[in-house]
């Protein structure tokens, strides 16, 4: 959670990891998923305030770090999402 301070929780939707977001506005997850695609991040919105990620089943630590970096860059590009 320290690496993702805007996250209020983590959960799984089936085998897909998801992050619950502390957001000031509604439908931020859909905006985040769309913007993430432009940054090479495969994800989808779960409701208004959660984003599901789609990493490969075989993923290295470096690839996880890249995923988190792209997620952070996407959120930074959208502005302050913390509630």
Automatic annotation (TrEMBL):
Keywords, in A-Z order:
Aminotransferase, Transferase
Q: Name one GO molecular function term.
A: transaminase activity
Protein name per the record:
Aminotransferase class III
Q: Where does this protein come from, organism-wise?
A: Primorskyibacter sedentarius
State the organism's lineage.
Answer: Bacteria, Pseudomonadati, Pseudomonadota, Alphaproteobacteria, Rhodobacterales
């Amino acid at each position: 959670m320290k690496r993702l301070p805007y996250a209020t929780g983590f959960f799984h939707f089936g085998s897909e990891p998801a992050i619950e977001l502390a957001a000031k506005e509604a439908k931020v997850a859909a905006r985040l998923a769309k913007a993430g695609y432009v940054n090479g991040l495969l994800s989808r919105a779960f409701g208004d305030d959660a984003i599901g990620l789609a990493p490969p089943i075989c993923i290295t630590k470096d690839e996880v770090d890249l995923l988190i970096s792209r997620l952070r860059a996407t959120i930074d590009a959208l502005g302050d999402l913390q509630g």
